[in-house]
Structure formats: C-alpha cells, structure tokens
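Sample pair:
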Amino acid sequence: MRRALWVVVCASVVLFQLGCRQTCGRRPWCGSCGAPAQQPAIYAPAPQPIVQPAPIQQSGAIQGLPPGALLQPPPGAQIRQPGSAPSISNAPPMPPAESREPPRPESKRDVPPRIQLYAPESLEKETPAPAKKPSVQATLPPIPQFGVARDNLFTGLRPGLDGLDWLRDNRIATVVQLRLPGEDDSSDKKQVEDRGMRYVSLEISPESLTKDKADEFIKLIRDGARKGIFVYDQDGSLAGAMWYLYFRAGEFLDDDVAQLRARQLGLQGNRAGQHREMWLAVRKLLNENSP
C-alpha cells in the first residue's frame, strides 16, 4: 500500500509541473509561476516589386526608356517573333567603311618576286650577209661556148678582154687555163691578174696526162668552187675531157651521167683528132686507177 501511495504522489507532482509550464505564457494560476521569458521577434522581409525584364533594344532604338516600358512599333513595321527564321533583306549591302590608316609601304614579303625576261642572246656573232652575186645565167657573157658545170663552176673557150671584164664583174675568183705543152700563157696571165683574179696554168696533153695531173685538176675545182672558178682552153678538146674526168673521179658519177654532163661542157669523144685522143687518154687513166 505504501508503495502504491508513493507512486501516486510522484505522479501528481509531475502533472502539476507540466500544467504550470503550459499556463505560464497565458496567465499565472499559481504563485510559483513567474513571468514568461521574452522571445526574440522574427519579422518577414518586405515584399519587393516584381520587375519585368526589359526588352532587348535593337539598333536605332530610343535610349532612356524606363524599365518595364513597352516600345510600340510604328505602323507597317515588321516585328520578328522569337524563334522565327531571320529574314533576308532586299536592301543593298552597306559598303565597307574606308580605312583611315595611312598606306603601308610594300614590303618584300607582300610583293611577289618579279621575273624579267630578256631577248635571248645569240651564241654566234652576227656576221653581215655576203653581197649577192649577180646571176651569170641572167645575162649572156661575151665568152664562146660558155657553160655552167654547177654552182660557181663555169667553163668556155679562151675569153677576150670583154669576157675577162665580165668574169671580174661577176666576182669570179680563179681563172684556170688548160694548155698544151709549150703553149705561151704570159699574155693570159697578165690580163687575168690585172683584173684582180687568180690565174692558174695547167699543162695537159693526151701523152702527158697522169694521175697527179688529174688529182691537181680535181683539187683546183673543189677549192675554186667556194668563190667561183672559170676553166677554159683553146678549142674545147682539153676542157671537155677533163670535165668528164672530174665528174667520174671528183663527184663519183656513173659513166652515163658523167658523159651526159660533160657533153654540155665541150666533150666530143667521137670527133677525130685531139678531142678523141684526149677522151681515150682520160678513159684509160680511169680504168687503170679504178678499184
């Protein structure tokens, strides 16, 4: 019983204490309750006005509009809505602003390398063109049985003084006389050299014709052909046969062609006398020295 009574007393004290704490904030109902403790006041912050974000001003917009003010577009203006595709203006593009910077001098890096071409130089020195020789075929020279063997090679009978003048005027450099042994050549030599031409006398006969004489004649023709050469004799019996010799041994023509060309220059192998004798002597020499 005592234990139960002690439990009841303890519970009553606890309940009394709890009831005192709950009523202290209102009014005291018992003397042991003091004034309630002063609690700190908590105030809510004053509400701030909601500011609408100002619209993005485009180029040319009026500055100084208050926040939240709406810009009314002028009549007929096109307003691009957010998210719409940009429109392409038909107005011509604005020209770029001119640069006011002073021009910079061109540097070697900015300027591409320049290649200057010159006319090609000739490796050989220019030589004046030789004077054109008059065509001997354009005029008839005063020389009996005058003929042309080929370029710069001419033949005929013994020329007179006017014939020698014609040879000089046509720039013939060498005059060759074919003569029999013992025939005088002093007058011919003087007349030719007086006109500034070279005179050569070659003594030939059917009996004295040798290979050395033939080689000498061929060399005279080859050397004289560079500047012009004229060959003559007294009646054509020597010159015609010697031209045949030159065509065979000097230009290596066959017999038929050599005879054909030599006949145009005085060859008469069928003519009796010295013409035939010289013709036979030349053929004999060629046969003896043929390979």
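The domain at 147-288 is CATH 3.90.190.10 (Protein-Tyrosine Phosphatase; Chain A).
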